[in-house]
Amino acid sequence: MTDALFAILASAAPLAFAGLGALATEHAGVLAVFMDGAITLAGLLCVLVACWTGQPALGFLAAAVALPFLLALVAIFTERFRANPFITGLAANLAFGALSATLSLAAFGTKGVVSLSERGVDVSFPRNLFFPAALAAAFGLAFVLKRTPFGLRLRASGPDPDALRARGLDPARYRVASWAIAGFAAACSGAILAFGLGAFVPNMSAGRGWTALAAVYLGYRRPLPILAASVLFAACDYATTVLQGVGAVPSTVILGLPYALALIVFLAIPNHSGK
Amino acid sequence: MRRFIVPSGAILAAIATIAALVATLVLVAISGDSPAESLAAFAVRPFSSAWFLGNLLDRAGLALLAALGSSVALRSGNLNLGGEAQIYAPALVSAAMLSAPGAAASGLLAFVAALLAAIALGAALALVPGVLKTRLGASEILTSFLLSAAILPVLDYLVSGPLRNPEGNLLATREIEQSFRLPSLLPPSRLNPSFLVACALAVAAAWFISRTRAGYRLRVSGTAPEFARFAGINVGSVTAGAMAVSGALHGLAGFCAIAGTWFACHEGFSAGMGWTARAVALIAGRSPLAAIPAALLVAWLQAAADATSLYSRVPVDVTAFIQAAIFLVISARSLPGLVARSRPRGARYD
């Protein structure tokens, strides 16, 4: 029983980080449709740099720098050309996914699984700390959004940009910042997935970026409820894995569940930026 | 509610084309061991034999069919992102129907039944997001994508499980009966009459959109929904209808891919065809006729990238990068300078 609990909490952590990142852009009026591809790219960068340097920490650092940078670039493009963030986000999602596959092939010569331990990287990570880290991040984000001037402005940048302009602030800067925060969250999520498995797996996010969007709405756009929603989704995921082991559900069909779940939540909960 | 309006104008189309070309060329150049050789193969190889050329045209024809579907949705102010499942599911149904034991005995009847089933299924899959938009106000962009993504694994399961050919080693259905296969126009390639059908439909779509009353309602609902409502047009049913036609054309592409090109449905059948079609539709902008050269261009880029991957270490998934580049360009509301001036009917969201 405790094994199941630990497994569920561990698999909730990457989902929670993705959800918290998506919450940041949600406040800026942007649906984080880039999240899924961003997580996969982050996972790949972690494994890539960890293999080059032998240091997993440097792998995480690389992802934590690259993803916010790349997403901020897309955000700046979006603001500069007044583009539709939904479409540029989808473009980023596509490019990140394809970039991950291309980089994996270029660096490792395979489109398949890249194992860290086979390449001499120490893979003894403190897996028990993944969920507490997500918990800390949720508290941290809640504090920033609620109690700091930056958080207040970020929350105004989507629904009420004129309020910021009236105070002489540029709402676009806060929107760009929200993409960067989402990028950092994607880096955390990808790192947890990659180091949790001790490997890079093709299409590693496996729809988690989309489930995370559903978690944002199920969690009523508040950090701690989002964490709870992530645990709930992780528990459902655990249950289907068990059913799959028993042979009650074909394993391929389960790959579609994150998308079906996201679809249902979007339809059931009105008033979000996806409309 | 966001409406997606296709930017018009030759300049934006040109920029999108250039973006696609540059994205592909850069990828091909950096992925090969010898860029010069890769680029040479890139330009020449697709035209080097009847086999390559015929398959290129065949690919363009399938992309054109689905692109016309994507285009109809775009003109009505809707972005249909469910193309993958709308091609794959009808393809699977056609393959299952045309390979069923005894299907050959019913001859033409079975062929027409499969064709209609494929079109109806494609239409139904796209109608769902359309109705969700009109009834619940849910973004068709999001719901069409999620619906498709949720269905694709189920289709993969059916192909590799219940509908799999038990005698074959591949994860694929049985091959369809010989009598149902569209003949090749350019042996040994797979070019078949569906290419001509696609071109004819492009002409028909251009006529429909610019010359008929329904086409007028489509255009007005797409560019000026408030005005359309004021003029007594039921924008909701235009949206639903346009989405259904969009899905029907994707379904037709799926049927033709089975009857003319592959003869069996394999796992992961759509393989980005829906995304390719949308790239074609976005390059073509507002004109269904422009979709013909756009389809040829994108098919050439893909065929060329495939040809180079024979020589290079890294086979590149160009379609995704092309699509990303085009999305970025097309989504920009105010590209500075020249595009801004050429944009009297430009991209706009409300």
- Characterize the overall form of chain B: globular
Mean pLDDT of chain B: 83
- The average pLDDT score of chain A comes to 85
Beta-strand content bin of chain B: under 5%
**How would a crystallographer describe the biggest sheet of chain B?**
none
Query: What is the H/E string of chain A?
Result: HHHHEHHHHEHHHH
Q: What is the CATH class of chain B? A: Mainly Alpha
Q: Please give the domain count of chain B.
A: 1
Q: Whole-number radius of gyration of chain A? A: 18 Å
Number of helices of chain B: 14
Helix content of chain B: 55-70%
Shape, per Cα inertia axes of chain A:
globular
Can you walk through the features of this model?
The complex is a heterodimer of chains A (275) and B (350). Chain A is built from twelve helices and two strands, in the order ααααβααααβαααα. The longest helix of chain A is centred in the C-terminal third of the chain and has 27 residues, at 171-197. With 275 residues, chain A is mainly α. Chain A is globular and about 55 Å long. Chain A has a two-stranded antiparallel sheet. Chain A has helices at residues 2-27, 35-53, 56-80, 85-108, 130-147, 149-157, 161-166, 171-197, 208-218, 223-246, 251-254, 257-268; strands spanning 114-115, 199-200. With 350 residues, chain B is an all-alpha fold. Chain B has a single domain (10-341), classed as ABC transporter involved in vitamin B12 uptake, BtuC. Chain B has helices at residues 10-31, 35-44, 50-75, 83-98, 108-136, 140-160, 194-211, 213-223, 225-230, 235-262, 273-284, 291-309, 318-331, 338-341. In chain B, α3 packs across α11 (273-284). The longest helix of chain B has 29 residues, at 108-136. The interface between A and B is large, with 41 and 47 residues.
